[in-house]
Amino acid sequence: MAAITASVYTSHVPAIGAALDLGKSGEPYWQKVFAGYEFSKRWLKDNTPDVIFLVYNDHANAFSLDLIPTFAIGCAPEFAIADEGWGPRPVPKVIGHPELAAHIAQSVIQDDFDLTVVNRMPVDHGLTVPLSLMCGQPEKWPCPVIPFAVNVVQYPVPSGRRCFNLGRAIRKAVASFDAPLKVQVWGTGGMSHQLQGPRAGLINREWDNAFLDRLIADPAGLSQMPHIDYVREAGSEGIELVMWLIARGAMGDESGPGTPRVAHRFYHVPASNTAVGHLILENT
Amino acid sequence: MALDKPYKDIPGTTIFDAEQSRLGFHLNQFCMSLMQAENRARFKADERAYLDEWPMSEEQKQAVLARDLNWCIRLGGNIYFLAKIGATDGKSFQQMAGSMTGMTEEEYRDMMISGGRSIQGNRRLGEDGSAQPHRQPQGKSNPKAGA
Fold first, then answer.
1. Where are the alpha helices (DSSP H) in chain A?
2. CATH number for the domain formed by residue range(s) B15-90
3. Min distance A154 CA to chain B CA atoms (Å)
């Protein structure tokens, strides 16, 4: 049977991808960001899963206003890299895992989460920047990836509670897949940032760190936090953090493993407009 | 009964909800069209003519021509869509975000390097933080911005 072995949480700031792609990662400004991922790259090499289930959001690239799915699961064999207007990032295409993705879709939809099944979509920086942060610049990504896109662009986005419960349903789905796969669930986006209006540039270091504390120790309580707290305290784009609760719900503490082990924790301001937060949690 | 929209009292912030999305539908879809190189070239060659192909309001077209992102957002634009105009102009997200504050590019970048904008005074309208309406535009060249 397949099992979830660990979860990874990270911001997915586009400028981080640009810094790597343009060879600026050695500059002091960016070194402070990448230094926080040195451990993580070694950790991923030592703990390469068979599949990464990667929770992210599309930023008006695969989805325009024609279609706004709240939860979309990528079931294709592969996914092209989106041209977001600056040209596609020079990174490997993303290989999917159609069998596991279809299995999760079937299980989770029957658990009352109405996923949109997507058989063709380009993936943007929300998905590729976390891969770059965790893998560096390889010829190909270390394993197949199931893209799972959450609408956090048009309000209302799904609640933290719903995201947390969806994570639990994903855990259950993975556990019933009849192959001995090690699966990691990654939650991406955030932390505090606001990209619009006179309040642009908002950062809330204290709130972010409290979020990390609660995500580790009290995720069920954290999942009750209403949208308005994210928006008011962490900025209009800080609401991306609800996606971390999907990965956290998938750790399934209450179903047996208990509170996961914190393998790594990192926080830094700024990367462009954004506070960078990063956690690795392991099921022991 | 009206829907509860508690986010209306956050200063300097427009939440892109279903109402804004409806207002800005054609503006945002115009922005999406700029993801194609051919459309970027046509837009750059004659911005007004390209905009006239879209059923946008005259005010939305003026806001795009002026590259006034706050104005675009008031008219239903969303930053991730508007970013396609920035990409067409060769601007980064930081340059775009900074342009909405009134600060120079350098002032905004320095604010971010020093830890970003403080939440103090910027949670609710009526407080006295840097994002409040009575302190716009921001930046050293503007006396209203304060310390």
1. 14-21, 28-34, 38-46, 98-110, 125-135, 160-175, 205-217, 219-222, 227-234, 244-249
2. 1.10.700.10
3. 5
